[in-house]
Amino acid sequence: MRPSARAACAAAAVALTSCTTSTGPVYQEYFISLLSIQEYYDVRQGVYVETMIFGVQNDFGAFISGAYMYYSTGLGRLELASSFSDIYGTATVVWTLLPSERFANPRPSVNVCANNLGGLSCYRVYSFFLR
User: Fold this and answer.
1) Residue 58 within a domain
2) Residue 15 placed within a domain
3) Are 71 and 32 contacting, i.e. CB atoms less than 8 angstroms apart?
4) Which end of the chain is more exposed for a tag (fewer CB within 10 A), N or C?
């Protein structure tokens, strides 16, 4: 093997091993931003429907596909409790609230976290409030 090829292989081996430990991949949490929220009032059912689109990014600002996403709220009903970010690094959740919940005090919020390994515990949890 040529010296330049050997150096490239060694660099690739170092890059691969720095992402894992002897027990497997290193746990990583991601940054979450609210990219879009669309609200409408469903007259037939008498509820507010909030469609929220979140962006999932790593420490360098790159959008992450396949991240484990977890959602929770104290008011209303979420369509999903968990999902994965799509190939664009985004995830969508639908949140349904009664009018009394929508205008509650304190303001209703959705809590979101994302990581690479799954599991329901996150250290970095983001809360998004309705106006």
Assistant:
1) yes
2) no
3) no
4) C
pLDDT digits (tens, 9 = 90+) for 3-62: 433 333 333 333 333 344 456 788 899 999 999 999 999 999 999 999 999 999 999 999
Which CATH number do you get for residue 60?
2.60.40.10
How many other β-carbons are positioned within 10 Å of the β-carbon of residue 110?
Answer: 23
Q: Is residue 16 one of the residues assigned to a domain?
A: no
Cα Rg for the chain, rounded, in angstroms?
A: 20
Structure tokens at 8: 């490239």
Report d(CA 100, CA 94) in Å as an integer.
18
Number of domains in the chain: 1
Pair 78, 94: CB distance under 8 Å: yes
Q: What is the DSSP letter of 107?
A: P
- Please check whether residue 75 is in contact with residue 104, taking contact to mean a CB–CB distance below 8 angstroms: yes
Residue 108 lies in a domain: yes
Q: Domain containing 50: what range?
A: 23-129
